[in-house]
Every structure is written in structure tokens, then in C-alpha cells.
Design brief:
about 325 residues, alpha/beta, DNA polymerase, domain 1, TIM Barrel, ten-stranded mixed β-sheet, two-stranded parallel sheet, about 20% strand
Length: about 325
């Protein structure tokens, strides 16, 4: 049985034709799926009962509620979802005043193997479909409060780019939520082929996981550097115009004594100075048996101020959900 959630308007026209409905029924279905967020075909009440019954023979909406939720003392909620492939993924809802951000996953586990990330330790267990990705949004109990979505959960979005692009396009579609691309950010470690496609095909914001300005040192922390060079993707990004609506940011986890020295600060400022970008400095969150340690707060502030003095907007990101293993780098469904 096929899922309707994840189909675009042209595919929904094909579905309509299969059950003997006129082409305009595709827009009706899209409205129910993406604007109203129905759970069942029976809720599509402006489609005839007979047509709904025909639809139900081969199709379903494709939504499934979270199977578990953990609540942080700071208001963050981590949800556990099952996937079409029989796996589990984690999604994090982060309320903050009048903003509410959803951190969604794009893969079950991850291939990139970053040494400081629990998802990287998990390894790779499978790709998420566009249905799996959108289900994290549409089946979220707080869905109607969302102001932003970030693809910074489990997985490398550019390693599953077809599904990620489809999901973001449907979120932005005029027959769905009609979200602005400025409300959606996609993160990557810097996969060049995926980055080229993303820059060409998507208007959403881009966040690059940098974490070290020296390729040799970055390679020790992030094995993907061996195949996807820091210098290559920075050169690619430098050719883009980042002065308009699309934002470029770099994620930089600050490790005590490892990437927080004046030498690193100088090189970081030199590398990023040609780009109109911002740097998000992130506290390292301890994971079991890790050789890494978080930097102290004084060093975090010094690095932020150094970058700011050298013309690069830098902020220290607030840690959220650490008590429920929902903060940056802590997501894992290895034992689920």
C-alpha cells in the first residue's frame, strides 16, 4: 500500500486518475495532506465516499504518531518515531519564547563517522523516505506551533538529498504549508556533489559542520574530510552570493585544547572572511568513552569575540535538552 504523504501535486494527479477522479481532486488531496494534516483518507470530506473507498484500496496517508517522548527540564521534547523500514529515529522539538524549532532526522544512523557524535557511532542503518521525513513534522503534537525546521538530527542530509529536497519542496509548496525557505535550514558536513545540487535546486538556508579549520586536524575528527575536502567546498561556497535571502552558517563545536586556540581562531577567521556568513559556536556534549572535552565558558566567549572583531558574526548556541540526550551530537537509536 502506497503512502500519499510525500507525493507532489503531479503524482497526486496520477493517483486521482487511477481512482477515476478529475485532475482538480489532486489539489483537494494536497490540501488535506499538507495544509490540514489529516491522518486518514476518510477525513478528506470534499472527496466523494465512493472515491475515498477506492483510494483506500491502494493508498493510505502515511502518518504515524511518535512511539515515545522524553521531556527535558528546559522544555525540549525528544520524540521517537518508527520508520517505513522498521527502524527508529529521533526528532527534537525546541520551544524558545515565540519561536519553536524542530530538529528532524534524514537517515537512520549516519555514514559520516564523526568521532564526537553518537549518531556517527551508531553507523548507517538506512535512508528515510520523504514520507518518513515529513511524518516527523506532520505527526508532531506541537506541529502548529512550529516556526523553524532544521535538518540537523540523525544522518547526513546531502547523503539522502532526493528525499530531503522533496520534503522541503513540499513544505514550501503553495498547495501545502507555503513555508518560506527562510524557515528551513539544511546541514551538511560538506559533501560536494550534494552541495552543488542543493545550491542549484533549493532556496533554503545552509549550515556546514566545520569544527576545525585545518584539513589534517579535521580529518582526525571527521573522516568525511578524506573524501570531501574542506578547501573544495569552501571554494564552491565562495562562488555563491550570500548577501540576499539565503543564509550561510558554519557549525563549530568547541573542544577544550583541541580547536579553541589562537591558531585555530586566526585560521578560522582567514578561511571565512571571503564569505558572508555566521558561525554558531556549540558546546561539546560529553558522550561515553570520548577523548574530547568541552571548552570552558571563558574560551567560548573569547572565540566568539575574536571572530566578531574580525568581521565574522559569531554566536554561542544555547544547549538544549542535554538531560534527555537531545542536545547536539547526542541523538542515537542504536539500542532502540
Amino acid at each position: 500500500m502506497e503512502n500519499l504523504l510525500g507525493k507532489d501535486i503531479n503524482e497526486l494527479r496520477q493517483v486521482a486518475a487511477l481512482v477515476g477522479l478529475p485532475p482538480f481532486a489532486a489539489k483537494q488531496m494536497a490540501g488535506w495532506l499538507y495544509a490540514r494534516g489529516v491522518e486518514t483518507i476518510d477525513e478528506m470530506t470534499n472527496i466523494s465516499l465512493a472515491a475515498r473507498q477506492r483510494l483506500q484500496q491502494d493508498f493510505r496517508v502515511g502518518r504515524s504518531s511518535p512511539v515515545d517522548a522524553q521531556h527535558s527540564a528546559d522544555g525540549t521534547i525528544k520524540y521517537l518515531y518508527s520508520t517505513e523500514g522498521g527502524h527508529f529515529i529521533e526528532t527534537v522539538y525546541i520551544p524558545d519564547g515565540d519561536r519553536a524549532t524542530l530538529c528532524v532526522s534524514s537517515q537512520v544512523g549516519c555514514k559520516m563517522g564523526c568521532r564526537f557524535c553518537m549518531t556517527g557511532r551508531q553507523g548507517f542503518d538506512g535512508q528515510l523516505s520523504a514520507t518518513d521525513i515529513l511524518n516527523q513534522v506532520y505527526s508532531l503534537p506541537e506541529r502548529d506551533r512550529l516556526t523553524n525546521i532544521v535538518f540537523m538530527g540523525q544522518g547526513e542530509p546531502f547523503d539522502n538529498l532526493d528525499a530531503v529536497l522533496r520534503a522541503t519542496q513540499l513544505l514550501m509548496a503553495d498547495y501545502g504549508w507555503g513555508w518560506s525557505p527562510r524557515r528551513i535550514t539544511v546541514s551538511t558536513v560538506g559533501l560536494r556533489k550534494g552541495m552543488e545540487r542543493f545550491l542549484h535546486e533549493s532556496p533554503c538556508h545552509l549550515a556546514v559542520s566545520l569544527h576545525n579549520p585545518f584539513p589534517g586536524e579535521r580529518r582526525e575528527m571527521m573522516p568525511a574530510e578524506r573524501a570531501f575536502s574542506l578547501t573544495e567546498f569552501l571554494s564552491l561556497l565562495a562562488r555563491e552570493d550570500w548577501t540576499h535571502q539565503r543564509r550561510l552558517s558554519f557549525e563549530y563545536i568547541v573542544f577544550g585544547g583541541l580547536n579553541d586556540t589562537p591558531r585555530h581562531a586566526r585560521e578560522l577567521a582567514r578561511l571565512l572572511s571571503p564569505l558572508h556568513c555566521r558561525v554558531n559556536l556549540i558546546r561539546f556534549h560529553d558522550i561515553p568513552d570520548s577523548p574530547y572535552h568541552k571548552a570552558d565558558e571563558t574560551t567560548m566567549e573569547w572565540l566568539r569575540d575574536y571572530l566578531t572583531r574580525h568581521g565574522i558574526t559569531a554566536t554561542i548556541r544555547a544547549s538544549r535538552g542535554e538531560d534527555i540526550m537531545a542536545a547536539c551530537g547526542l541523538l542515537s537509536t542504536l539500542k532502540k
